[in-house]
UniProtKB/TrEMBL annotation:
Residues 232-242 have a biased composition (Basic residues). It comes from Mycetocola lacteus. Phosphoenolpyruvate binds at residues 283, 319, 432-433, 443. Residues 149-218 form the PEP-utilising enzyme mobile domain. This is Phosphoenolpyruvate-protein phosphotransferase. Keywords: Cytoplasm, Kinase, Magnesium, Metal-binding, Phosphotransferase system, Pyruvate, Sugar transport, Transferase, Transport. GO terms for molecular function: kinase activity; metal ion binding; phosphoenolpyruvate-protein phosphotransferase activity. One of its GO terms (cellular component) is cytoplasm. Residues 4-120 form the Phosphotransferase system enzyme I N-terminal domain. Signal peptide: none annotated.
Length: 546
C-alpha cells in the first residue's frame, strides 16, 4: 500500500515507524477524591519513573545531550520539588495537578534567576509532561525515546522539535498535516532529513510498521517489497548530480551566485563544501526558539560572530527576527486570540509598538560584522511598501549596517517593487510567503498543500515585476524561498530577472547543474512561456518540453 504526500528534498529511506504522542492537556483543578497519602505515593512513584527513564536514556547518549538528560533526571528527584508536590496534595490537589503546579512554580523561579538557570527552565515543561504521562499510564509526549533508529510519524512538529531531532535515531519524517513550505519542512530539508509531509490519513502507520519514504516522489510505501526499495534507490542514484562544485553560472557564463540558507555556524562547513558562495538567508529567529527572554546584545554578538567567521570575504544576508505565526518566540509575545496569525503581528510588524528588540538585534549585528571579514547585509521580513522599507533601511544604517535590503514576500511589495528598490540596497524574494499570500492559502495547512506551488503563474508574474524593477534600478534581486531549490524553477526565476539564488545546501548541486544548461536568453524565453501558462502544471510543462 502506498500513500501520497509532498516530499521534502530527494532522498530515500526505509525503516520502522514510531508515532509521536499528542501533548497532554493541562490537568483539571478539581479537588482530589483519594487520600493525600495515596496521591503522594502515586506522585513520588511517577517522579521516580521519570528520573529512571531519563537516566537510562542518558546512558545511551554522549556529550552535551547526556549532561542535559542527567541534569533533568536530578531535577525530577529534587527534594524541594517533592516537598512542594506533597504540600499541594495536602491542600486537596490531585497528584497530576500538584505535579503540574509544582513544576510550573519551579520554572518561574528559574526564569527569574536568569543566565544558565533560566535556560534550563524549558526542560521543566518536558519533565512535567513526562511525569503526568506516567501518572495517567499514557505514552510520554514529544519525540519518542528509542535506542534504535526509526521514522517519526506526527501530525506536525513545532520548529523547535524539528531543530532538536537527533539524526542518529530519526531516519525520516512523515507528517499528516503541514505543507511543503511549513517551517517543519524547511528545517527538515536543512537537516537533510528525508521527509514526506501533508500525507493526510496516517492511521495505518502503527508503531513498528516498515515503510519506504521516497521524498522525490512524495510517497510512503507501507511494508515495501525488496524490489520497491531497490527501484527507489536506483532512481535516487540516477538523479545524483555529477557536476563539479563551483560558482553558479549560466551556459553563457552569466554569474548567478548560489547561496545557502542556514541557521547555525555548525551548518557552515557542509554548506561551503557543497559550494555555497555565501549565505542568502540566515533565519535569526530559529536561533532563539527556546529562549524565554530576549537574548542580550552580547549573547547575540557571540552567535553572529561564530557564523560570520565561517564566511570570510563572502556575503552573509541576515534576516532580522521573523517571529509570529508558526515561529512564536516567548520574548516577543503576540495576542493569542489573533484570528489569523499569518496576517497578524508577524515579522517586522511585531515591532510596531516597541522596536527595542529590533534595535538591539541590529546593534549586535553591527558589532559582530565589524569584528569579522564577512560581507554582512541585513534584511527585514514581511515588508509591505516603500514607507516600511524606508523605516527599516534608515534604522539599519543609523545603527551601523551599511547594506540594508528587504524581503519581498507580501504581494504589495511586488506591486511596489520599483519604489522599494528606490530605497533598499537589494530585495530577496521569499517565495514561500509570497505564494501563501498570493493564493490566500495557509502554508501550514496540509489540506491546501497544492496551493503552495510557486510555479503558479500568478506568483511568477509577481516575481517578474520584482525582477523588472531590479533590472531597471541595477540592484540585486535574490530568491531565498524554497522555489530556489527547485532546479527547473530556478531557470525560470533567472529568466524573470532574479540575480542570485539561496537554498538548503543539499539542493545546490542540482540547481548548479541545471543552470549550466541554459543561456540567459534561453532562460528569458522559457520564463516568458511559463508566464503565459494558466496553471502551475502548464508552467512546468514549459521546462519539461525544453
Ligand atoms: C519565505 O517566505 O519564502 C522565506 C524565505 O521566509 P520563511 O520561509 O522563513 O517565512
Ligand atoms: Mg517568509
Amino acid at each position: 500500500m502506498r500513500v501520497q504526500g509532498v516530499g521534502v528534498g530527494r532522498g530515500v529511506v526505509t525503516g520502522p515507524v514510531l508515532r509521536m504522542p499528542e501533548p497532554l492537556p493541562e490537568p483539571s483543578d478539581r479537588p482530589r477524591s483519594n487520600t493525600a497519602a495515596w496521591e503522594s505515593s502515586r506522585a513520588e512513584a511517577a517522579l521516580r519513573e521519570t528520573a529512571h527513564d531519563l537516566s537510562q536514556h542518558a546512558e545511551h547518549t554522549t556529550g552535551e545531550a547526556r549532561a542535559v538528560l542527567e541534569a533533568q533526571a536530578q531535577m525530577a528527584q529534587d527534594p524541594s520539588l517533592l516537598t512542594d508536590v506533597r504540600s499541594r496534595i495536602a491542600a486537596q490537589k490531585t497528584a497530576e495537578r500538584a505535579i503540574f503546579e509544582a513544576f510550573h512554580t519551579f520554572q518561574q523561579m528559574l526564569l527569574s534567576m536568569g543566565g544558565y538557570m533560566a535556560e534550563r527552565a524549558s526542560d521543566l515543561g518536558d519533565l512535567s509532561q513526562r511525569t503526568i504521562a506516567h501518572l495517567r499510564g499514557v505514552p510520554v509526549p514529544g519525540i519518542p525515546d528509542s535506542d534504535t533508529p526509526f521514522i517519526l510519524v506526527a501530525h506536525d512538529l513545532a520548529p523547535a522539535d524539528t531543530v532538536g531531532l537527533d539524526l542518529e535515531r530519526v531516519l525520516g519524517l512523515i507528517t499528516s498535516g503541514g505543507g511543503p513550505t511549513s517551517h517543519t519542512a524547511i528545517l527538515a530539508r536543512a537537516k537533510a532529513l528525508v521527509a514526506v509531509v501533508g500525507v493526510g490519513d496516517v492511521a495505518a502507520l502503527v508503531d513498528g510498521t516498515e515503510v519506504l519514504l521516497d521524498a522525490a516522489e512524495g510517497t510512503v510505501t507501507i511494508d515495501p517489497s525488496p524490489e520497491d526499495v531497490q527501484t527507489a534507490r536506483r532512481r535516487l542514484g540516477r538523479r545524483r548530480s555529477k557536476v563539479p562544485v563551483g560558482p553558479g553560472t549560466l551556459a553563457d557564463d552569466t554569474p548567478i551566485p548560489l547561496l545557502a540558507n542556514i541557521t547555525r555556524a555548525d551548518e557552515a562547513p557542509a554548506a561551503r563544501e557543497l559550494g555555497a558562495e555565501g549565505v542568502g538567508l540566515l533565519r535569526t529567529e530559529l536561533l532563539f526558539l527556546d529562549a524565554e527572554r530576549a537574548p542580550s546584545i552580547a549573547e547575540q554578538v557571540e552567535h553572529y560572530q561564530r557564523i560570520f567567521e565561517e564566511f570570510p570575504g563572502r556575503r552573509v544576508i541576515v534576516r532580522t527576527l521573523d517571529a509570529g505565526a508558526d515561529k512564536p518566540l516567548a520574548f516577543l509575545p503576540v495576542d493569542a486570540a489573533e484570528p489569523n496569525p499569518a496576517l497578524g503581528m508577524r515579522g517586522l510588524r511585531a515591532f510596531r509598538g516597541d522596536d527595542s528588540i529590533l534595535r538591539d538585534q541590529l546593534r549586535a549585528l553591527a558589532i559582530a560584522a565589524d569584528s569579522c571579514r564577512a560581507d554582512v547585509r541585513v534584511m527585514a521580513p514581511m515588508i509591505a511598501d516603500a514607507a516600511e522599507t524606508a523605516r527599516f533601511v534608515l534604522l539599519a544604517r543609523e545603527l551601523g549596517l551599511g547594506t540594508a535590503g528587504v524581503m519581498a514576500e507580501v504581494p504589495s511589495a511586488a506591486l511596489l517593487a520599483a519604489q522599494i528598490l528606490g530605497i533598499a540596497d537589494f530585495v530577496s524574494i521569499g517565495t514561500n510567503d509570497l505564494t501563501q499570500y498570493t493564493l490566500a492559502a495557509d502554508r501550514q495547512l496540509g489540506a491546501l498543500a497544492d496551493y503552495q506551488d510557486p510555479w503558479h503563474p500568478a506568483v511568477l508574474r509577481l516575481v517578474r515585476m520584482i525582477g523588472d524593477a531590479g533590472g531597471q534600478s541595477g540592484k540585486p534581486v535574490g530568491v531565498c524561498g524554497e522555489a530556489a531549490a527547485d532546479p527547473l524553477l530556478a531557470v525560470i526565476l533567472v529568466g524573470l530577472g532574479v540575480t542570485s539564488l539561496s537554498m538548503a545546501p543539499e539542493a545546490l548541486a542540482d540547481v548548479r547543474t541545471e543552470l549550466r544548461q541554459h543561456t540567459l536568453e534561453h532562460a528569458r524565453l522559457l520564463a516568458s512561456r511559463a508566464l503565459a501558462a494558466a496553471t502551475p502544471a502548464e508552467a512546468r510543462l514549459v521546462m519539461a518540453e525544453a
